[in-house]
Specification:
Number of strands: 9
Number of helices: 12
Order of helices and strands: EHHEHEEHEHEHHHEHHEHEH
Strand content: 5-15%
Shape: globular
Strand order of the largest sheet: 4-5-6-7-8-9
Helix content: 25-40%
Distance between the termini: 36 Å
Radius of gyration: 20 Å
Largest sheet: 6 strands, parallel
Amino acid sequence: MTTVVLEKLVAKPPAKLGIVDCDIHPSPQSMASLFPFMSERWRTHAETFGTFAPAPFTGHSMFAKSAPSIARRDAWPENGPPGSDLAFMQRQHLDLLGIEHGMLTPLSPNPGVERNLDFAAALASAVNDWQLAEFTDKDKRLHPAIVVPREDPEAAVKDIERCAKDGRYAQLMLRPHGLEPFGRRRYWPVFEAAVAHGLPVGVHAGGYGAYPLTSAGWPSFYIEEHLATTVGGGPALATSLIFEGVFDRFPDLKIVFIENGFAWIPSVGWRLDRLWERNRAEVPHVKRPPSEYLRSNCWFTTQPIEEPARPADLRQIFDWIGWDRLLFSSDYPHWDSDDPAYMFPIQISSAERSQIMRDNALHVYGHRF
């Protein structure tokens, strides 16, 4: 595949800004890339049986087939899929755009939905070790995430404990769709371990669980599924965490909503506050208005940034959410990734830009760098 020289297309932002990118997707070249980090049993299992997710359609993706691997056309290195070649990523993204720190968010394979729980645990451990060996060991700007088999909290906690001893993992990473809503107590050991080790929990949109992404069933079009990854993920997840009492039980828990959008936050917060005022006797463990938990325990990445018809409306959304709640993310190397030099359709001050592009992320993750 021909590679476009991106340096000729994109202006590099000032190097002094020192951008923190909260969503960079590394990818194994193939399942075999993870084999050095698996026992012989699980290598054989992977080759013989592969993964076994609850999605109903073999080979189905929520993204249009015109965007293979959900990637930009210019993001394909010659030797593998997008995100698999570190040197290519360095030239095209990290060096070019002045990325000071990058949060790795591996999406595939996804141990969180693997139905064979023993294989899920082995797969998660392999992905975690692979990130260190192939990216962080070779480029200290890149910070790995601990992925876990979410349906096996005991195994998840075990690998969190193992990885946390290394000290280089920046966060715990989960996907929003599973067998039960995320706030359910069966998942609390995972949150407890995250807090104990000072790890924010990044929740990346997308992926499949056991149910349709929309509350009305399986959609007909890619557009519907792409929208559902945002409006069907973030609000439902936040509501579950709040009303199940997760933030009251773990007041120091930090949740980072990655690629879940953000324009929904004010209206969802307003509505939840009104419901809580009228029905708080049902949830006496929830001590504060729901919108306060969104302001104290949650952060939100910018990509894909909302683009209202009147750009000035975006500033009002930022004001409602709080400028200290937003973290820059590129979503590299995906087809709808954002360039930090052009992502804001409104005028913002240098201080506001620095806050979103760097300072807020240093507040959330900085103690891990």
